[in-house]
Write a structure and sequence with these properties.
This protein has nine helices and nine strands. By secondary structure, it is of the alpha/beta class.
Length: 247
């Protein structure tokens, strides 16, 4: 979607948010040429901070595309907020319900309409102690397999200076340095036409996350660690059970 086709509420959002971000951040943008001007594209950033959506939206908009984020479906049912989200072309996602398949249909439709869909493949801010990427969830891979849309990796470093998820500290000082780099599409051609089995989707997701990790290493410097594996629920609960038994 070009800027000439933006509706009133989209332009309103830009007028409200962009001046704040221009003052709040000192930006290093690279790789905008990889965000195609036309056609559906899946944008997959790493997830450092709750400030990430503001920074990534600013980057995608400056690249000439309108970012379409996923939002909890319950937000879209709120009287005013839901209407604004809809008018701003954001995408409702049902989680943990029988309607979850409809969310994939909505994403597929957005891409076929030429949208720039932003998906954080980690599903939440990284739990890796030094904020390196962790293993992702398979939603972006499933969507790529269903549509054939290019998956554009976007590595970010700096939003954690705005809000650090480890300390819960928010910084309001101006000109916080942020770096955002988009790379060429992740090569997922070896899985083209494959059935969306768990193994296939996990392999595709690892390919996406490893690309993001290596791009982030180029920004940060140093040697990145292996993708951090979030502990299973049973493993996380075991120490608590052991402590309870000891008491």
């Amino acid at each position: 979607m070009t800027r000439r086709r933006l509706g009133f509420w989209q332009r309103f959002a830009v007028v409200v948010v962009k001046p704040v971000m221009v003052v709040w951040t000192r930006r290093t943008w690279r790789g905008m040429e990889h965000l195609r001007r036309d056609g559906g594209v899946i944008i997959v950033p790493n997830h450092l901070s709750h400030a990430d959506p503001l920074v990534s939206a600013h980057f995608v908009y400056d690249a000439g595309r309108w970012p379409q984020f996923l939002g909890k479906a319950s937000l879209f049912r709120l009287p005013l907020v839901g209407r604004i989200l809809h008018w701003c072309r954001q995408i409702p996602v049902e989680r943990g319900t029988v309607d979850a398949a409809k969310s994939l249909d909505a994403l597929v439709a957005a891409l076929r309409e030429g949208g720039a869909v932003v998906i954080y493949p980690e599903g939440t801010t990284t739990r890796e102690p030094e904020l390196w990427p962790m293993r992702g969830k398979t939603g972006a891979a499933r969507l790529a397999l269903a549509t054939g849309a290019p998956v554009i990796p976007v590595a970010m470093w700096g939003p954690e200076r705005i809000f650090d998820p480890r300390t819960k500290r928010l910084s309001l000082r101006p000109r916080i340095p942020v770096t955002v780099v988009a790379g060429p599409p992740v090569d997922l051609s070896r899985w083209a036409g494959a059935a969306p089995t768990r193994a296939t989707l996990e392999e595709m997701t690892d390919a996406i996350m490893l690309r993001l990790r290596d791009m982030l290493a180029e920004i940060r410097g140093g040697t990145p660690p292996p993708l951090w594996q979030r502990p299973s629920r049973s493993a996380a609960a075991r120490p608590q059970q052991e402590r309870g038994g000891a008491a």
